[in-house]
């Protein structure tokens, strides 16, 4: 079944696009505001899971409990993608339904928010800190929160940027939340450009075309005119367009600068390389040129989320889902330095648990970021990059020795007496590379075997736990204990801190919305996953 798109009259398009080039700052409350859409601008997309809906998500089985005596080491790649949070918000607020389980990646929800971790002051581009608190999900458990704070770089101090806007203008983009929103998004980014920055604009549908040759950031009107002239028609030829984007980015390559492709699409590639692994491998090979690949996802009904997330990972970029203009401002204005400037590459985290103090553990999220233990010391293995000002948060739930855990006790495990220090829960190892360097740098620090009650935890840790609980509840996780929507809401409200852009207030609203949608019964997907 083909999706039907509402065609907007020219006057409506003019109203929607007018004012895009204004430099007026949106008030803080705008980030939490509900977007009003004209009735004739709403597209009736098929519901997820129906015959006419072709949205695609990677199937992710949540991490299982590990026994420290058997698997003491946990290794994973850092992740700063945030697309899952915004996409889930779209399901709740626009589609008015709970999201499919596979659309929920808990680590992207947690990392959607910036936390108030200490700023780095030494030679390393980030600072690592930890906090251990009583678990909100299980009486006998603790949660170790690992927080990474990258150094901030003022936008004015960023290196010169060579940006290639690669825009999908195929027929599938002819929808209000697609190409018109793409135009607004690129307009927001264009307004941030400096004279030393340059932009190339490429479009693709039935064919690819350079519609704007490399243009300096001080020629904003020229760039904006090219953006505003974009229109949608034809099929999608993603392969050749991506190859052209790399070619054009290479022509304008800035040594020691920012070189990045930003693709704006619904991910519906139906011409050219459509094999997922082939496309992913092509981009992974191209990242060796020093050009990053960032994906900006748009739309619903045919959205290929798996493609968008995985291509960004392969291209040493980041993945964002743009569901409204406020999200575009967050990604490309308020957090522009984080989006464009990389301060650490191939960031890997490895935690070795102490069998003398920890019996069992589970990592919350990062299911498609797991690495083999031997990958940690192998500098040839790719991992996630961290941008300026980014925070990365990871949560481990642990069962201390002597406490009842998730798993039944083993006959012989009980007889084995773990030897080691009683003062540490674990030892944290972190590897990273400075940009464009081949050799990694190792950081280490112990995690103390001390904890505090949840009520005495920092606001950052309590809020991260509330967001993790939200993700677990949406997926019907069996590890959420008896914690319900009201408990999550109470925890989130207890953790509220300064909220410059209203994102945490908005989260409270999403919790209430999810609770309302969950009031009747869980979704079919949740029942299937939990069984």
Automatic annotation (TrEMBL):
Which Pfam family is one of those matched by this entry? YfbK_C
> Which InterPro entries does the UniProt entry name for this protein?
CLCR, Uncharacterised_YfbK_N, VWF_A, vWFA_dom_sf, YfbK_C
The record's listing under Gene3D superfamilies reads: von Willebrand factor, type A domain
Record domain VWFA: where: 162-340
SMART domains recorded: VWA
PANTHER family cross-referenced by the UniProt entry: CALCIUM-ACTIVATED CHLORIDE CHANNEL REGULATOR, ZINC FINGER (C3HC4-TYPE RING FINGER) FAMILY PROTEIN
The protein's name is: VWA domain-containing protein
Q: Which organism is it from?
A: Acinetobacter sichuanensis
């Amino acid at each position: 079944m083909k999706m039907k798109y509402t065609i907007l009259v020219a006057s409506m398009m003019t109203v929607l696009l007018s004012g895009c080039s204004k430099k007026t700052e949106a008030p803080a409350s705008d980030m939490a505001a509900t977007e009003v859409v004209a009735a004739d601008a709403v597209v009736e997309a098929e519901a997820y899971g129906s015959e006419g809906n072709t949205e695609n998500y990677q199937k992710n089985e949540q991490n299982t409990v590990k026994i420290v005596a058997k698997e003491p080491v946990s290794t994973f790649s850092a992740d700063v993608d945030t697309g899952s949070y915004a996409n889930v918000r779209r399901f709740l607020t626009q589609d008015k339904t709970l999201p499919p389980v596979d659309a929920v990646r808990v680590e992207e929800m947690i990392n959607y928010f910036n936390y108030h971790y200490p700023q780095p002051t030494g030679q390393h581009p980030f600072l690592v800190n930890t906090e251990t608190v009583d678990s909100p999900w299980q009486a006998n458990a603790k949660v170790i929160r690992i927080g990474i704070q990258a150094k901030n770089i003022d936008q004015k101090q960023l290196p010169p940027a060579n940006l290639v806007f690669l825009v999908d203008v195929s027929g599938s983009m002819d929808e209000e939340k697609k190409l018109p929103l793409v135009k607004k998004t690129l307009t927001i980014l264009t307004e941030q450009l400096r004279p030393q920055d340059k932009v190339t604009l490429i479009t693709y549908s039935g064919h690819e075309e350079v519609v704007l040759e490399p243009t300096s950031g001080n020629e904003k009107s020229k760039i904006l005119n090219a953006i505003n002239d974009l229109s949608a028609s034809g099929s999608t030829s993603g392969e050749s367009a991506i190859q052209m984007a790399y070619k054009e980015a290479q022509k304008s390559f800035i040594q020691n600068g920012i070189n990045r492709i930003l693709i704006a699409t619904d991910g519906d590639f139906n011409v050219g390389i459509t094999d997922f692994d082939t496309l992913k491998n092509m981009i992974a090979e191209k990242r060796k040129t020093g050009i990053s690949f960032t994906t900006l996802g748009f739309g619903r009904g045919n959205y290929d989320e798996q493609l968008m997330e995985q291509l960004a990972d392969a291209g040493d970029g980041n993945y964002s889902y743009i569901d409204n203009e406020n999200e575009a401002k967050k990604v490309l204005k308020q957090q522009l330095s984080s989006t464009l400037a990389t301060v650490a590459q191939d960031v890997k985290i490895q935690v070795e648990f102490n069998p003398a103090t920890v019996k069992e553990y589970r990592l919350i999220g990062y299911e498609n970021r797991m690495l083999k233990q031997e990958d940690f010391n192998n500098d040839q293995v790719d991992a996630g990059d961290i941008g300026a000002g980014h925070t990365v948060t990871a949560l481990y739930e642990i069962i201390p020795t002597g406490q009842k855990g998730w798993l039944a006790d083993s006959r012989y495990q009980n007889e084995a007496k773990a030897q080691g220090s009683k003062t540490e829960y674990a030892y944290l190892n972190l590897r990273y590379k400075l940009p464009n360097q081949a050799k990694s740098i190792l950081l280490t620090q112990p995690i103390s075997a001390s904890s505090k009650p949840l009520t005495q935890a920092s606001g950052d840790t309590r809020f991260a736990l509330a967001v993790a609980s939200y993700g677990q509840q949406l997926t019907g996780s069996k590890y959420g204990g008896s914690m319900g929507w009201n408990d999550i809401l109470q925890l989130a409200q207890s953790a509220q801190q300064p909220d410059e852009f209203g994102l945490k207030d908005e989260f409270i609203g999403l919790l209430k919305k999810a609770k309302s949608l969950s009031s009747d019964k869980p979704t079919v997907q949740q029942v299937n996953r939990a069984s």
